[in-house]
Design goal:
heterodimer; A: 381 residues; alpha/beta; B: 473 residues; mainly alpha; 2 domains; three-stranded antiparallel sheet; 5 strands; 3% strand
């Protein structure tokens, strides 16, 4: 049964109930793949999210940081453990739909957040390499793929010619909803704004039942789930989060941040319901941090970090990729990068969304022929 | 019966100004074009910080930043000596300068809302965005306000070449586009570093030179190639700020806001830009190149197209663009003459409100409509603009904010305007239909007026500000 607000929403939309035009009929029978990209800005310390107690050099190099963390972190295999705050992730790892890849880095080897994020978003090997983002270009490769960005600004990763909707929680109230509903008739006469306004009311209908007040991952990620869950609609979502630059008191900060990420993933899983089966979540960061602890209980800018993968489409229960070990460090300070993040992204885009290798090598990640898609990350269907 | 004078008054106030204040349209209607043109001769208005105090200069900020770096270096040394790990209590960059950044944002917002010359203020916004710096790079986080006050504001009615030289020589631009780190490969500094086998790589950074050609002067389709980028980058080596200078050096000033010319980092020798030869002349070589670029035919067309696209329409009439380019060229880049050409052109006065107000333009117009002034302290302005999607001093790219309406019209963007209109509508006392008439004038549609009149006052005011008409200029 419709409640009054639904009714108003439908009125505003005329006959269309959907945010986006329906897919071609032939494709509606096939569940479409969903992709969620989570960008952790500030450089997540991979050795805290995914410690390596099995590496002989780990305990001595990490000192206090390892000593406080190790006893409660569940082991994933002989080498790696998972941070204790990532309990949902651990549960999914055991269930087989969460995986990780350690020692992922970029072609850019500087240590500036700005330049590294620029590269991670523009999809080339150097800052300023493109004024559009790889996620926009990836979406543009596919006729029926719709993207949504749940970010504060319009980050570079989603900029470009493909239209990508954005949504962030507004300070909404019943009064705002009533006002918006009463204005829908006025906007129908504005041909340039009318469609966008109708979409605003529809998006509000999708997320309004739940109070989405904050901007933490545990607030934003379930909202992403709501947009991706329906049978028709957006299938790619971008989420970003600040505050991962842990130069001081790292264990305390990351215990809080990783718990937020874990709650976010858990809420996303809950909201996606049956669609979780068709979902791949990629959690990544611009670079890693120094292996040794600095003087303030934190770590400084480094090179390689880990990528976390979750979702029913992921071949999980496994730590993929090569592990360079801690015996030899880059510049005697950083974890060596054993795989390029673009290789991971290419593997997911090819095997999950079905992008062609040629497009990945030239359009999505320009001049990247030498970087092969990472094999075996996606479950065969 | 709508009077033509009122239609033109609304265009003057919204398209060329920052939106009408209560009762203003009737005054402007006496002579809309005269109202616009007279402001070009208005005196400069100084921006003030909290309590009416002057805001710091770029040099003040750079000194504080250098002290901040010294404090942190000292703290790191101290901690390295200690065996036990202990946290540092020193503030981080954004904390150290947070209050300054707040004061800069509020001062700018107050100027936009209080100014007696909104037409000039629009040019400040236009040129600040054209010569964009963004606070997203650490060293410049507190500088964009001072940059606008020192390099942009005093030059908006001078010649384009004066504006260009002021901007490119300003410390903020040199830091933002990394020219301060650019070192001539055969300069004394680079040779000394090679002798020491220094691990720090010293060399040419082309960032500023490329953006000058692509974004500031000739435009991305301009007649230059990679060799021109390198030639300009080489000429600009040694254009630095006091932050990069070794102790006990006393380099000559570059421009008048704290930059220096560091001869030892400059790549010596003559070079060729756009087919023209430039003799070795220290900092003078780069300055001469900028003057050449300022007079270039492509620059005239690029600027003409951009400003017509900003003020008049996303796809402005070609006739208007060529009239502007001609004025730019014939008057030797005289900006006041260029503005007069725009304001006197009939194609600039066509009704229809074709441009979607960008968030900042929307918010200032909302404050004008309600006759409100942001306080000199606090952080409300930034919170509101971030909500609307245009974080102050933070465009995030050297290309600046987009001027294409399509980039701003989105579902989420419109809904946030409704939320903000609701908040401001609730907190005001003006009669809703009066508000609609004084801020929309003849653009108020009958249907909107009827809808407004059926609401309680708070909701009615919010409906004016959230109406489709109010989103356009």
């Amino acid at each position: 049964m419709l409640n009054r607000r639904d009714f108003l929403g439908r009125l505003a939309l005329g006959c269309s109930m959907w945010l986006w035009p329906p897919l071609a009929r032939a494709e509606t029978h096939q569940a479409r793949p969903r992709l969620v990209v989570v960008l952790l800005r500030g450089a997540l310390d991979g050795l805290t999210a995914l410690p390596c107690p099995g590496d002989p050099a780990y305990a001595s190099l990490r000192g206090d940081l390892a000593a406080a963390l190790h006893p409660t972190a569940p082991m994933l295999n002989d080498t790696f453990a998972l941070h204790p705050a990532l309990s949902f992730c651990h549960q999914r790892f055991l269930a087989g739909d969460m995986a990780a890849i350690h020692a992922c880095g970029q072609a850019y080897r500087g240590r500036s957040h700005f330049s590294a994020q620029d590269c991670l978003e523009n999809g080339t090997d150097h800052p300023g390499g493109s004024r559009t983002g790889w996620l926009n270009r990836a979406i543009g490769e596919q006729a029926h793929t719709q993207g949504i960005s749940l970010t504060d600004d319009r980050p570079l990763m989603i900029r470009g010619p493909a239209p990508i909707t954005s949504w962030v929680p507004s300070p909404t109230s019943d009064a705002t909803r009533v006002l918006a509903a009463r204005m829908s008739g006025l906007y129908r006469h504005d041909e340039r704004l009318g469609p966008a306004f109708a979409r605003a009311l529809e998006m509000q209908r999708i997320v309004s039942d739940e109070v989405v007040g904050g901007t933490r991952l545990e607030d934003i990620m379930p909202a992403a789930g709501r947009f991706l869950a329906p049978a028709e609609g957006a299938s790619v979502a971008l989420i970003d989060d600040q505050g991962w630059d842990t130069h001081a008191r790292q264990n305390a900060v990351l215990a809080r941040k990783l718990a937020d990420l874990d709650h976010g993933l858990s809420a996303l899983h809950r909201q996606l319901g049956a669609s979780w089966r068709h979902t791949a979540v990629v959690v990544m960061t611009e670079f890693g941090r120094t292996v040794r602890v600095n003087g303030s209980g934190g770590t400084d800018h480094g090179t390689a970090s880990c990528v976390l993968l979750a979702g029913g489409a992921i071949r999980g229960g496994k730590v993929h990729g090569d592990w360079p070990g801690l015996a030899r460090l880059r510049d005697n300070r950083d974890l060596v990068a054993a795989q390029d993040i673009r290789s991971v992204l290419k593997g997911v885009l090819r095997d999950h969304l079905g992008l062609q290798r040629a497009a990945l090598d030239t359009t999505v990640f320009p001049d990247s022929r030498t970087i092969a898609p990472f094999e075996g990350l996606i479950r065969a269907t | 019966m709508v009077s033509d004078a009122l239609v033109l008054a609304e265009i003057a106030a919204s398209r060329f100004g920052l939106g009408p204040r209560p009762g203003e349209l009737e005054q402007i209607a006496h002579d809309p074009q005269g109202w616009v043109l007279a402001q070009l001769d208005a005196p400069q208005e100084a921006l003030l910080g909290p309590g009416g105090t002057p805001l710091p200069s770029t040099l003040d900020y750079l000194e504080r930043f250098a002290q901040f770096q010294r404090d942190h270096a000292e703290a790191r040394r101290r901690m390295a000596r200690q065996t036990a790990a202990g946290g540092t209590s020193l503030p981080r960059l954004s904390q150290r300068f947070g209050r300054d950044m707040q004061a800069e944002r509020q001062a700018r917002a107050r100027q936009q809302c209080l100014t007696g010359a909104p037409v000039l203020e629009r040019w400040v916004m236009f040129w600040s965005n054209h010569f964009c710096v963004s606070a997203d790079r650490g060293k410049v986080v507190m500088l964009p306000g001072a940059y606008e006050r020192e390099a942009i504001r005093p030059n908006i009615t001078s010649r384009f070449s004066d504006l260009l030289l002021a901007v490119e020589q300003h410390p903020t631009m040199l830091l933002y586009l990394e020219n301060a780190d650019s070192v001539g490969p055969s300069s004394a500094v680079a040779r000394a570093a090679r002798r020491r086998a220094s691990p720090r790589s010293l060399g040419l950074n082309e960032n500023l030179a490329r953006e000058i050609l692509e974004l500031h002067t000739l435009g991305v389709d301009g007649p230059y190639d990679q060799a021109d980028v390198v030639a300009l980058a080489q000429a600009l080596t040694g254009w630095r700020t006091p932050l990069e200078m070794p102790p006990a050096t006393n380099p000559p000033d570059l421009g008048s806001h704290g930059s220096v010319f560091h001869e030892a980092a400059h790549e010596p020798g003559p070079r060729i830009l756009l087919g023209q030869r430039f003799a070795a002349d220290g900092a003078g070589q780069g300055q001469a190149m900028l003057r050449l670029l300022a007079q270039h035919e492509s620059t005239a067309t690029f600027i003409a197209r951009k400003l017509a696209g900003h003020f008049v329409a996303d796809h402005p009439p070609a006739e208007l663009v060529s009239a502007l380019a001609r004025s730019f060229r014939d008057q030797d880049g005289d900006l006041a003459e260029l503005y007069r050409t725009l304001f006197r052109h009939p194609l600039a006065w066509q009704p229809g409100a074709p441009k979607f107000r960008r968030p900042e333009e929307f918010l200032v117009a909302l404050y004008h409509a309600l006759d409100k002034t942001p306080p000199s302290t606090g952080n409300q302005w930034e919170q509101e603009l971030r909500l609307l999607g245009q974080r102050p001093f933070w465009p995030g790219s050297p290309a600046g904010w987009s001027d294409d309406s399509r980039d701003w019209i989105g579902a989420d963007a419109l809904y946030r305007r409704v939320a903000l209109a609701r908040r401001h509508g609730r907190d005001s006392t003006v009669e809703p239909l009066a508000l609609a008439e004084h801020c929309l004038g003849p653009r108020l549609r009958e249907e909107t007026a009827v809808a407004i009149s059926q609401q309680p006052p708070g909701m009615g005011r919010a409906m004016v500000l959230a109406s489709p008409e109010f989103q356009w200029r």
